[in-house]
Amino acid sequence: MKKIRLLLVDDEKDFLTAYSRRFIRRNAEVTIASSGPEALDRIGETDFDVVILDVMMPEMNGIETLRRIKAAAPDLPVIILTGHADHKTLIQGMDMGAFDFLLKPVGTDELFFKVMDAVKSRSRTRS
Amino acid sequence: MKTAIKTFFNFIHRQQDRDAETRGTFLAKSENFRLLLAANNKALETMAEMQEATRSGSVLGIAHVRAQSLKVAAGVRQMIERLCRMAPGKYEELRGVFNDIVQSMDQTLNAQAARPTGPLILYMADIRAGSMPETGSKMALLGEVRSALGVNVPDGFAVTASAFHLFMERTRLADEINRLIQIHGCRDLEELRALEESIRRAIDLAPLPPELETAMRTACERMGDPLLAVRSSALGEDSERASYAGQFLSKLGVRPRRLPDAYRAVLASLYSATAMTYTLNRGLREDEMVMPVGCMEMVRAAAGGVAYTRFPMGNNGRRIVINAVPGLPCAVVDGSSQADSWVIDRKTMEVLDREIAEKSVRYVLRSDGSVGKEKVYGEACMAPAISETDALRLARTAARIEEHFKHPQDIEWALSRDGRITILQCRPLAVCRFPVSPPPDNDADRPFTLLSGCIPASPGAASGYVFKVGTDDDMLRFPDGAVLLARNARPQLSALLPRASALVTEYGSAAGHLANVSREFGIPALIGAPGAMERLSGVSIVTVNGSTGTIYLGHRQQQIHDAAERNEPRKPTNVTQALESVLTFISPLNLTDPESPDFRPDRCRTLHDIARFCHEKGVAEMFAGGRRPEGSARRLKAGRTMQYWLVDIGGGTSGSDDDKTISLEDVRSNVMQALWKGMTAVQWEGPPPVCVKGFISVLTSAAQNPALSPGAANAMGERSYFIVGRNYCNLQSRFGFHFCTIEGFAGDDPNENYALFQFQGGGADMLRRNARARLVADILELHGFIVEVRDDALFARLEGVSRQAAEQAMAMLGYLLMHTRQIDMVMADPEAILRYRKRFETDIETLMAEMGHEPGTARCAS
């Protein structure tokens, strides 16, 4: 199987380690970034299939990061995954074209299905 | 729903108009449709959980309510996005409607009182009862008795609610704490301990705002930098509605330069596992908890204790009770030692009763400022902690305080070596309405008495297995519904009370923290039951009567029955109120009739309305509309005609499109052929012999759930639809109570290949349906599927496998579809489950072998 190229963006180290380990076990190719600017750099270098993006990050918040990702790679699906149950972020994120909005904690299976949905939806929409 | 089905049929049966969509567009549309349905399921499921919580009262806290409402909102928004993609430009208006509803939800959940913006520090001399919103009740009441009655209280100051908000907002701790509460579970003590740890770490790392630190330093200097007692004075603490008795931290003997650390520690105790248990169980909003902190000069007490201006267990309105221990009064409040007690008549000021306990330890303030526990030796053990004269002075002061507040009081006091009485705390005393009665003479249960004459601390009676709690590990192992037995009435035990049936401790007082919390939770409690640890060890079930002070062997129904009428009904809590008001924007369904002119976006008033609208229109866009995929529905014929219909979206069949039927030989789709093979390879023997219980469970479910009624099933005509392409097949089927989607793609590029199985429903009760879903999940996981089971729903996917493996997987799904659909009825019987599982595995192996491959070789994606 062609590996899913996944970019995980979160400032929480524990989260990054735990999830990248789980996704690698699922045969995904995981790149991690612990800030918005770093995520943008990675996106400039690699052609990802999907991004999982945290919202509350120092430096540049998730919404601003999402705005710039969408400017650079409009059809790259971005899944927002946040620990802040905040209605504004939901609306802003979805208005900016996030693929979906999930709340932590989320089961690995549920998140992985969402990742596959996002990848599949993108390839279907492209064809 | 009806209309949706109608359009579905119109689509299937309309023969004219061959204006075809391309295969790609169709696939994209069906993918969006699938995601729309999935989001719909999820949103409705979460909605149902929220409604269930209002019925059962099992709410987990405001963070949970907020997260759940946002999950519903995210699901509904996803539906809107999918619908807009299915039909660009037609439904964009929904987004605005959605945003408005979500904004109203947000306002409902955040309806908080305006933040105070007062001074960061208030000095004791300036504090009155009216300062409560800034200082919390502990400091406000002390300030009040000092100024109004001239009673001696420690010198000190309050770090205010304004200071708390400044700290929380400036450092973004408020956000961070909400986040931590959301991402940690709050279901059991272990999760709460982990949460406590994370929050404490976050608070420790947050720097105090400089102006707050300066204000603290100035205040200490003004007092001459004494040793401080730093105590919680949380808003709402000690109120009649919620005592929070003993839940929060006090730091004693704090040097002024250590004040910021002590302040953080007291703040963190707002989120300790014990306090969170209390908060969640009382239905208080954890995001509205505010902790002003009292900083007071330490009193070097020769003796100290607690005074109750009424007998806490009701009765005897004329009695004042004074409890006293040598040294600092902590030993009384935390239940770690027996205390002397005087009972004094409030009118005549006559000593009615006097009991000198054997005191084994006392707390002292050491010269280095630390608080230490000392053993008490020899004669001192039995010496009264205070003189009778002091007891009478205390009684008089206590009576004056009660008179001032016009409510029974629970007063903590200290006596210094020079004989001065200092009031450390006073708060309203919760007095039980129900009098304590001795066991009636004709007590039929008397032969079963294990212990009697224990101190009743909370009325009522309950039975349960005895569980001894000594260590922290014991706390984690504590089983639901057990009788909590412990040596000392430690306030930490209150974290277990919501799960205990009754409480028994050897030491402590009926007016201590733990007793208080038992009364608030309505759990029968005996505190001061000497010998209980020994007498109850090795005994399994006991009945504890908290009204009469008696413990019986076994389950004594009469005791429980007699005590039962005394329970007060629970009042609605802050969290349930918030949940109910946010639900008014979520769950009511106003759009009931899709044919009505009101069935349009701007008439959607709730998230449920939007979900309903999207679902209905999604179905319409999928199966109606002018442009449709090539080919139309033909009925499948294999020897005889069947209730299966087939739609070819391109390359899936050969032969003429004009026929109304199609035979299996004309199906070119390899995926459908594989699926069909699985469906028919092993003859289905019909539903299992129905056991009466399983059958009744089917009938009950059908009666309760209108969607499962036979009428609804017939509306679908029991027909199933194959949508096929050359390497593609999607089966939407409905058998009676079961809904199922099987979809797969099997071509030459493994990256494109997948098999997908969604299965939900059944006629039996949820327990059996869930057992069936798990059985199917186990089998699929063996073959490399990633599977998720929630209630009776199963979602399984296999991706990125070879063409052969994908075909095999489809065959297996076909087999499982046919053979597991009605076995839910027998799923309460573990032997039947095992038997079916074995049969399925054997059949599947045979099937795989017949397809010419090694059994079980579908390679896993992981």
Features:
heterodimer, A: 127 residues, alpha/beta, 5-stranded parallel beta sheet, globular, B: 862 residues, alpha+beta, disordered C terminus
Can you offer a commentary on this structure?
With 127 residues, chain A is of the alpha/beta class. Helices cover 49% and strands 20% of the residues of chain A. Chain A is built from 5 helices and 5 strands. Chain A has helices spanning 13-25, 36-45, 62-72, 87-95, 108-126; strands at residues 4-9, 28-33, 50-53, 78-82, 100-103. Chain A has a 5-stranded parallel beta sheet with strand order 2-1-3-4-5, sandwiched between helices. In chain A, helix 2 packs parallel to helix 3 (62-72). The longest helix of chain A has 19 residues, at 108-126. Chain A starts with a strand and ends with a helix. The mean pLDDT of chain A is 91. By secondary structure, chain B is an alpha+beta fold. Chain B has 25 helices and 30 strands. In chain B, the strands form 5 sheets. A 9-stranded mixed beta sheet of chain B has the order 24-22-23-25-26-27-28-30-29, with helices on one face. An 8-stranded mixed beta sheet of chain B has the order 14-21-20-16-17-18-19-15. Chain B has a 6-stranded antiparallel beta sheet with strand order 9-8-7-6-12-13. In chain B, helix 2 (23-56) runs antiparallel to helix 3 and helix 3 packs antiparallel against helix 4. The longest helix of chain B has 34 residues, at 23-56. The radius of gyration of chain B is 35 Å and the shape is elongated. Chain B starts with a helix and ends in a 12-residue tail after the last helix. The relative contact order of chain B is 0.09. The model of chain B is unreliable at 1-20, 625-631, 698-718 and 854-862 (pLDDT under 50).
Question: Would you kindly provide a brief summary of this structure?
Answer:
The complex is a heterodimer of chains A (127) and B (862). With 127 residues, chain A is α/β, with parallel strands linked by helices. Chain A has helices at residues 13-25, 36-45, 62-72, 87-95, 108-126; strands at 4-9, 28-33, 50-53, 78-82, 100-103.
